[in-house]
Amino acid sequence: MRILVVEDEKKVASFIKRGLEQESYAVDIVSDGVEGEHYAEVNEYDVIILDIMLPNKSGLDVLKDIKSRGVKAPVLLLTARDTVEDRVKGLNLGADDYLTKPFAFEELLARIRALMRRGVAGAPVLKFSDLSLDPATRKAKRGAVEVELTVKEYALLEYLLRSPNRVLTRTLIAEHVWDQSFDNETNVVDVYINHLRSKIDNDASKRLIHTVRGVGYVLKEE
């Protein structure tokens, strides 16, 4: 899943990025409000982490503008000031949650997972046919057989399971599983799809990951 972090404190941004990447998220980092607003509007994110106090444009102004332009990604506000006024204003402008600095990474991670669960009708386990993935335990199964995945294989499978029966282009997959520095000219997406197929489809009675020639891939039943 892809997350945008708009945070001007370099140590905080680095701390968040490092931790989220270890949890298999693709993370884009920007350091000011104007750039953050641009990224939120031109890219598709699963969660936006937005600091309130930013250079050039405040986080609350960014929040107000991206929501007025139809950005649907849930927004988690970060604030160094634990005041009721800031929290109420942010929630009234469309924020989905807030977190006060300093915070423990485990709490940030729990808030992100809670926001993502809202987008799948509260179901914590992702399922399609006899394939399942539990984000809480990070375990995947095909039928009753547990499947061991690398960090990127896990991220790729999660994206496929959140978009069943939808044809996903290689560009879309790259943007959600890798970050903004990803080189679209490489064949990394195809390589990882093949790795995933070897673990998910090889010993199964029916294939679930299918190629759409010239476009990308789709998770569907034959």
In short:
By secondary structure, this protein is an alpha/beta fold. It contains eight helices and twelve strands.
Characterization of this structure:
- This protein is of the alpha/beta class and 222 residues long.
- It folds into 2 domains: 2-118, Response regulator (Rossmann fold), CATH 3.40.50; 126-219, Arc Repressor Mutant, subunit A, CATH 1.10.10.10.
- It contains 8 helices and 12 strands.
- It has helices spanning 10-22, 33-42, 59-68, 84-92, 105-118, 151-162, 170-177, 188-200, and strands at residues 2-6, 26-30, 47-51, 75-79, 97-100, 126-128, 131-134, 139-142, 145-147, 168-169, 209-212, 216-219.
- Helix 3 links the parallel strand 3 (47-51) and strand 4 (75-79).
- The mean pLDDT is 89.
Q: Alpha-carbon distance between the termini? A: 26 Å
Radius of gyration: 18 Å
Count of discrete domains:
2
CATH class of the largest domain: Alpha Beta
User: How is the main sheet built?
Assistant: 5 strands, parallel
User: How do the helices and strands follow one another from N- to C-terminus?
Assistant: EHEHEHEHEHEEEEHEHHEE
| Strand order in the sheet with the most strands | 2-1-3-4-5
